[in-house]
Amino acid sequence: MLAFLLGIGGCVGCVSCAVLMSDNDTARSERSADDYDHRYGYGYDDGYDDSSSGSSFYTLESIKDIVGAGAGIVEDNACTEGVYTIGTDIEPGLYFLEGSQSAESEYYVFDEEGSDSYSIDDAVVYFGNYLTELDRGDVIAFLPGDDSLHMYPVAKAAFSPEAPYRSGLYRVGTDIPAGTYTITVQEDAAAHTSNDSGAFVMKDLDFDDDSITDTKYVIAGGSQTVTVQDGDYLELFAAVATPAEPATA
Questions:
Q1: Domain of life, per the record (predicted)?
Q2: CA 196 to each of CA 87, 98, 159: distance values in angstroms, whole numbers, following the listed order
Q3: Is residue 211 part of a domain?
């Protein structure tokens, strides 16, 4: 059995973690609501490799074994589910990751530590779509859970969302306008996750301790409001954002 303990690198939570393991060639992700606030965390351990080595680093082949995916395929800038080395298989830059509105997708980014040696950096569970900045030498495991979904350089992605905005990660001022939004539960997504529905405002995609500037959780039948400015990122996880009606005189 190969296993590594990784912190979920994303916009929500503090020190959450999950175990991703491969057992008898079956890769799966085991998560418990008691383990983390949402599906992200900060200040996490690099983890450990298989018990025989005790190493916190992984080879490219061990990453493929652990996540249960082989090398991805690139055709007309569209990347299928799989594992990619940045600078070899695909170019560095900002990427748009497709995902389902009713089933969790995930991706894992590994930092290059040496020749064929990598450590876990980011791990994200999402609905809808996501954005990630990939540097030369990184490895990404893109696992959307649906063969019809792809990852693209952001300039090649066709993305024209319309309000009300459903689950996904949005660039404020580019994908959605700045302003105040009412946040409610997205029922079709919420039915397929054990995590809380919510809206999360980030100032960047660095996934540092101070990346989050606002967090609003919602429950079925309830609502919250969130205000975003140009340059922010707004993530909706199993949630819907509806532009707030302007005040009437």
A1: Bacteria
A2: 36, 21, 26
A3: yes
| Domain residue limits at 228 | 160-243
Q: Is the pTM value of this prediction over 0.90?
A: no
CA–CA dist 236, 167 (Å, integer): 5
Element (H, E) at 67: helix 60-67
Using alpha carbons only, give the angle 18, 19, 21 rounded to the nearest 5 degrees: 150
Residue 201 within a domain: yes
State the total domains in the chain. 1
CA distances from 70 to 27, 64, 98 (A): 12, 6, 19
Structural domain includes residue 187 = yes
Q: What share of the chain is helix, strand, coil (3-state, %, to 5)?
A: 5, 45, 50
C-alpha–C-alpha distance, residues 143 and 123, integer Å: 11
Q: What is the pLDDT of residues 115-131, one digit of tens each?
A: 999 999 999 999 999 99
Q: In 3D, which of 77, 235, 233, 69 has the Cα closest to residue 151? A: 77
Burial grade of 28 (CB within 10 A; 0-12, 13-18, 19 or more): exposed
The answer to whether position 178 is within a domain reads yes
Cis peptide before 164 (omega within 30 of 0): yes
Per-residue model confidence as pLDDT tens digits over 132-177: 999 999 999 999 989 899 999 999 999 999 999 999 999 999 999 9
Tell which residue, 70, 15, 23, has the closest CA to residue 4: 23
Looking at this protein, which amino acid is placed at residue 118? Answer: Y
Which of 49, 52, 51 has the alpha carbon at shortest distance from 60? 49
